[in-house]
Amino acid sequence: MRSPKENPVEEYINKKYQVNNEIQINPKVKTLLDWLKLTAKSDYELIKNKEISKQFIYQSGKLGLFGMQIPREFNGIDISVSETAQIIEQLAAIDITLDSFTILQYSCSHSIFKHASSEIKQEYLPKMSTGEMIGCFALSEPAAGSNPRGMESTLTKRDNDSWILNGSKCWLGGASIAGVFIVFAKHQSDDQSGISCFVIPASASGMDVGDEQNNLGVQGLNLRTVTFNNVVVKNTYYIYKKCNITFRII
């Protein structure tokens, strides 16, 4: 029987990540894992007022938590998939909210890193990799969930260089503190079809971040609904352009 003084999270972390002297571990990974272990054992305030602590974002960002598989040229630490999985697993052992938040940041930064133009990468990745700028992955909608086939957000052509975005996205983690949104929408035009994905800066005119949504779990994600009302999307903001609607995300 476990002693009342024993901490099951601490016990798990110590057992799982006890470093064997014969095993070489990436120094950046070890530094991050060690810091997370110390954080789990301390009275450190990870979630404050239903949001991830800004102090946690700042300190973990400095250690590379949000740039795990991003190259060093963009302030990432460029570690492997297996090393990333170690860190994600430890985050989940501490608090599933931290794990979910980090995966959301990973989704945003990797969408940009893998598919965006070099200009967009240079503009956003260096700040996102260090946690200086938070990303928000905007796919789910009230009537469609995360099924792109049911998406109702639309892009209407404005001119040769831009489009007009209208619609709403829901259950967005980190929306209240995000500096950039990764948004999906359908083209609405006689000569255009498919779904496109693009970056929208949080300062864009016509965006409205709604009130916090009440949910039973992962309250630190501070889920919000975001409405887009005639938001101008420049062609240079595209990440994926006019994809066929042949997939479903659940």
TrEMBL record:
Under InterPro entries, the record lists:
Acyl-CoA_Oxase/DH_mid-dom, Acyl-CoA_Oxase/DH_mid-dom_sf, AcylCoA_DH/ox_N, AcylCoA_DH/ox_N_sf, AcylCoA_DH/oxidase_NM_dom_sf
Domain Acyl-CoA dehydrogenase/oxidase N-terminal: residue ranges: 48-132
Pfam families from the entry? Acyl-CoA_dh_M, Acyl-CoA_dh_N
Where in this chain does the record put each Acyl-CoA oxidase/dehydrogenase middle domain? 136-231
PANTHER family given in the database record: ACYL-COA DEHYDROGENASE, ISOVALERYL-COA DEHYDROGENASE, MITOCHONDRIAL-RELATED
The UniProt entry's coiled-coil ranges are none
One Gene Ontology MF term: acyl-CoA dehydrogenase activity
Q: What is this protein called?
A: Acyl-CoA dehydrogenase
